[in-house]
Design brief:
The chain is mainly α. The protein has helices at about 5-20, 25-55. Helix content is about 80%, strand content about 0%.
């Protein structure tokens, strides 16, 4: 799911995140990150569809 990141690496990232941002802001950051990834995938899919449609004609 996370590529080559193991459980130890994820724990270290979470601990650093807690130290830098605090536990209250971490869910907000995660939500924003998720929305950003979702929009990127949506835009990439739209671009791919446009290229496919343009090559059909």
């Amino acid at each position: 799911m996370f590529g080559r990141l193991g459980s130890t690496e994820l724990i270290v990232i979470l601990v650093v995140g807690f130290l830098i941002f605090g536990p209250k802001r971490l869910p907000e950051i995660g939500k924003s990150f998720g929305e950003t990834i979702r929009e990127f995938k949506k835009s990439a899919k739209q671009a791919e569809d446009e290229v496919t449609e343009a090559t059909k004609e």
